[in-house]
Amino acid sequence: ARAADQPYTMLVELNGQQFCGGTLVAPTKVLTAGHCVQDAGRLSALRVIGGRTQMNGTDGTVRRVKSARVDAHYTSPGLAHDAAVLTLDRAMPYRPIPVAGPRDAALVASGRKALVLGWGRTGPGVSATRLKQAQLVLSPLTGCRPYTDEDTDPGAMLCGTPRRGTADSVCPGDSGGPLVSGGKVVGIVSAGDKYCDGQYPVSVFVRTDSVAAGLGLKTA
Hints:
The chain is mainly beta. It has two helices and twelve strands, in the order E-E-E-H-E-E-E-E-E-E-E-E-E-H. It has two domains: 9-88, Beta Barrel (Thrombin, subunit H); 102-210, Thrombin, subunit H, CATH 2.40.10.10. The longest helix is centred in the first third of the chain and has 7 residues, at 34-40.
């Protein structure tokens, strides 16, 4: 993938190393995973980079994180409400993507295809060198076991499975990145194939329509 084609896709670094992904939803607001913020500890160690395709590139725009707001209902290591908003010290010069809201249920219907983006691993112990994308099929939550179970709220989470003939999934490092459907961000990467070996090629996302209001975000 090229950052120029998906300018809302943000790289989140911790102490200068790729850490998580994020989504630009307003000029100074980046949507990411709650566990990314909690695991980072100090906000001063975070940087958000927009417009960068190659991991080791020097292009793009770098911003510091002024503040962070984790969903009040998020409890680690759970998946529900695994969402946060980073407020940047200055605006990003890229076009934000609209946030899907309660009226956008059709965008997350089972069987629909959605795009996920990130700089996470590409294999067991293999770090990515550039932004990657994959088209996943939105599926019932039962398709994302063992990361989901019968108690998982379908109004809060989404399950993405590989298209036929592929083993695409999110991997470590993709957390916080965008799931896009119909030109809106519908999900936040929360969990997936933790060994990135294709044994459990499933991807679990927090639904943006379940967390937007609690994070003070406007939906389109």
